[in-house]
Hints:
The complex is a heterodimer. Chain A is α/β, with parallel strands linked by helices.
Amino acid sequence: MAMAALRREGRRFAPLVSSPNPINAIRSTLAPAEEQVGLGVRSISTQVVRNRMKSVRNIQKITKAMKMVAASKLRAIQVRAENSRGLWQPFTALLGDTPSVNVKKNVIVTISSDKGLCGGINSTSVKISRALYKINSGPDTECKYVILGEKGKAQLIRDSKKDIELILTELQKNFLNYTQVSVLADDILKNVEFDALRIVFNKFQSVVSFLPTTATVLSPEIVERESEAGGKIGDLDSYEIEGGETKSEVLQNLAEFQFSCVMFNAVLENACSEQGARMSAMDSSSRNAGDMLDRLTLTYNRTRQASITTELIEIISGASALEG
Amino acid sequence: MFRQVAHRLLTRSTTNHSACAAATILRPYSTDVSTDASSGDSAFVEAWKKVAPNIDPPKTPIQFMEPRPPTPSTLPSKLTVNFVLPYAAELSKAEVDMVIVPATTGQMGILPGHVPTIAELKPGLLSVHEGNDVKKYFISSGFAFVHSNSYADILAVEAIPLDRIDPAQVQKGLSEFTQKLNSASTDLDKAEAQIGVDVHSALNSALTG
C-alpha cells in the first residue's frame, strides 16, 4: 500500500516538475503515457516523445533545405531586378509621379506570388490594394482589380469578387523575361479600360526589408489633361514630339511602353521580395524547430529517468518485502 | 498634496509653453523640407491617412530616384546620357558629346542644349560620340527623351553592338520575311511580316552604312 501511494505520488508530481512553459501538445501526449502506467504497464513509454522528436527533426531539415533553395534563387533574380531598375526612371523623370491623381476609372494591378510560405508580403500587398480601392472609389469614380499570382487571388476573391477584371497566374513557370511581361501588359491593356493603372508590389530593398510600393501609369488622355492643368506634368507641352503622325499616337505608344517597363521591374522586384521573405520565414521556422527539439529532448530524458526510477523502486521494494 | 499638484501644474504649463514655442520655431522650416523626393506626394499621404491610418502608406517610385538637376542657365558642354535596356543599364549618366538616335522620322542627332523632345525610335543604328571614339549599337525600337537640362534618356528593348551581328543571317532573314510578306493573307500576318522586313533591312543598312 505504501508502494501504491509512492507510485501515485510519482504520477502526481510528474507534470509539476516539467519545464515552466510546457508545450500544451506535449502535455497532452504525455497524458496517455501516464495512463498506461495506471493500467498496469510497468514502464512509462518514451515512444510518443520519440515520435514527436523524429517529426520535428524532419521538419527542421525540410525548412533548412527550403531556405537554401530560396537563397540561391534570390541570388539569381536579384541581379536581374537591380539591372532593370534603370528602366522606369526615365518615365518618372519625364512624367513625374502622381499617385494622388483623381480619375474616373482606376485599375489596381496587384502583384503577388503563386506559392506560399513566404511570410507576410502577399497580405501586405492585398492590404495596400484594399486601401487604394477605398481611397479611389467614390460616387463618380470606379475601381477594378487585376491580379497577378495565386495568393493575391485567394485573398481578394473573398470579398471583392465582382471588382476583379482579370486574373493571371503561373508567371514564374518559365524564366521571367521582358517578352513575357510585355505580352501580359498587352493583355491587360486590351481587356481593361483604364484612366490610371496603379501597380502594387513589394520593392526589394534588402534580404530582410521589402517596401510596399505603388507605381502609377496614366492613360494618354489623362496625361494630356494633367499637362494642360499644370502641376507636376505641367511642362510636357514644352517637349517636341518626333515621330508618329499625331501627338496622341506617340503618347499612346509612350503610355503602353511605360506600362510594360514598369510592370517588368515590378514583377522582378516582387519575385525578389518573395524569395527573400521565404528565406527569412524558413530560417525562423528551422530555428523554432530546433528550440522545440531541445525542449522535447529534455522531456524525453525526464520521462526516461522517471521510468528507470520507477523500475528501481519496484525492485527495491520487492526485495525489501522479501527480506522483511 | 496641494503643493505637489501646484508644482505639477506649473511644470505642465511650462512644458506646454516650451512645446508651443518649439512648434512655432519649427513651423517656418517645414516649408523648406523638400517635398516630393523624400516624403512622397503629400496629397496622397493625406488621403491615405484618412482611409487607412494604421497602415504605413506605400512608397512611390519618385522616392527611389535621384532628383534630376534643374535646367542650367548656361549651355552645358556635355550631354548626360542614360541608355537603358530591360536587362541592364548600358550607359548610366555618361557624359558624351553627341548621340545619334534612329527616330521614326530619321536619324536625329542630339547635342547638349537640344530642345526638349520625346522621340519614338524605330529599329536602327544608335551611335554615341565621345571625343574621338564612337560606339555603335543596333537597337530595336524604343523611346528617347531629351530634357531641358541636357539629360538624354534612351530606352530600348534590345541593343547589340554591331560587331556581334552576322551579315549572312541578316540576308537570310530579309529574304525570308519578304517572302512571308508577299504570301501573307490576314492583316496581322502582313503587319508581322512587314515588321520583320523593316528590322532586317535596317540591320542591313546599319552593317553596310
